[in-house]
Amino acid sequence: MRSKFIAGNWKMNKTVADAVALATALKSGFSAKPGVAAAVCPPFTALDAVGKVLKGSAIALGAQNMHASKDGAFTGEVAASMLLELGCSYVILGHSERRTLFGETDKSVNEKTQAALAAGLTPIVCVGETLEQRKSEQTSRVITEQVFGSLAELGGSLDKIVIAYEPVWAIGTGLTASPAQAQEVHALIRKLLVRLGGEAAAQKVLIQYGGSMKPDNARELLSQPDIDGGLIGGAALKADSFLAIINAA
Ligand code: PGA
Questions:
Q1: Identified catalytic residue from 67, 95, 97, 104
Q2: For residues 224 and 182, is the Cβ–Cβ distance under 8 A?
Q3: Going by CA atoms, what residue is nearest to atom 7 of ligand 1?
Q4: Which residues 6+ apart lie within 8 Å of 41 measured at CB?
């Protein structure tokens, strides 16, 4: 059976001081349970400090983005080796905010995914349809394109990734996909993974749901057969609600 994995995406929130306070509260409130993993993804500026707080706890550290190159003239960018140095084990890639606001494409997400895997980071690769795409029944097509595009040519590493299905219309809106709506897309993603890397690899990949997951809807979403965790935005910014989602898992 796959374990559950709850990750907090803090986005562009928390100064170092605020991040340390939240990480400290999470560390003291977190009790590790078999079959449930947890991670937090603070902004770059707080990774070092949060990593130091979480050292020795079972809560892992992740970043929200990285560049595909090892190093070089890429002003404003951060490489995988720099994230590893700060204790990151995860990196979120291709979040819909990066795709829509910062021009990321399936091709660039694929390059980053390959680079993350090569460096030894676990990528959390995000996919999801917009409201217009859902209304015009384009969800399957869009998800298929994003999965095949973002996860091309991973070879034997396909089973080392995490996928986050995040319907864009549910992110930060308070609207959540119903458990059945989410499960339908998660099952589709699992089928696409079979085509990409075979049944055994597909069964290993953790597929998180993201989009207004909260303590009061987490249990039902997480009880769906192909929903293996959550990528949490708003509800990850407070220790109580994030810990409650972990407990639901
Ligand atoms: P939300 O964000 O939980 O605030 O909807 C999720 C995400 O964007 O990862």
A1: 95
A2: yes
A3: 233
A4: 7, 8, 9, 10, 61, 62, 63, 64, 90, 91, 92
Amino acid code (one letter) for 247: N
Query: Where are any strands of DSSP class E within 69-171?
Result: 90-93, 122-127, 162-165
Helices (H) and strands (E) in the chain, counts: 11, 8
Q: Write down all domains in the chain, each with its CATH number in brackets.
A: 4-237 (3.20.20.70)
Quick check: pTM over 0.85?
A: yes
Question: Which tokens go with 243?
Answer: 């810990």
Q: Is the pLDDT of residue 197 over 90?
A: yes
Q: Evaluate if residue 10 carries a pLDDT over 90.
A: yes
Tens of pLDDT, residue by residue over 121-161, are 999 999 999 999 999 999 999 999 999 999 999 989 999 99
> Is 67 designated active site?
no
Give residues (CB < 6 A) around ligand 1. 9, 166, 171-172, 210-213, 231-235
Q: What is the percent of the chain where pLDDT is above 90?
A: 97
